[in-house]
Hints:
Elements: H1 15-25, E1 33-38, H2 47-56, E2 60-68, H3 74-90, E3 95-100, H4 111-122, E4 130-134, H5 140-154, E5 160-164, H6 169-174
Parallel strand pairs: 1-2, 1-4, 2-3, 4-5
Amino acid sequence: xxxxxxxxxxxxxxxxxxxxxxxxxxxxxxxxxxxxxxxxxxxxxxxxxxxxxxxxxxxxxxxxxxxxxxxxxxxxxxxxxxxxxxxxxxxxxxxxxxxxxxxxxxxxxxxxxxxxxxxxxxxxxxxxxxxxxxxxxxxxxxxxxxxxxxxxxxxxxxxxxxxxxxxxxxxxxxxxxxxxxxxxxxxxx
Length: 189
């Protein structure tokens, strides 16, 4: 018995083909787009917002997430503030939400739970034809949780989900990961 899985229809693009897809697909005036992306220090924070705003200005709702960690370096905070400003400029009315990745009391990793609660309270898919999740400037654990949550939302609608990842080897190589203890399954909701 052959099952018809939703992801059987997935399409993958790389490099210029991905840029062409964004230009062609999202320029259609009936497309109402939600964008979830990181709003931290990473120089990739605004890249997808820039691309989408060029072809779909006025049809994008942004929810940008700023992962907060204890004692960040001043230059990282300054970069995050600049990305915050740029995202607000690109997508007027966008929400930029900050949340702590680690618990203040025992430093336990709580980012996944917090981002899911944030999405429950701040993400509205009403009227969206497409939801773009830009993982480029989000930590892996946070991105997995967001993607799983949004996938479950999309199963109850006709909304398309688009997952975008931009690489930047120099930035990725310079980011210092934080050990969060034992590996755990993605937060269930």
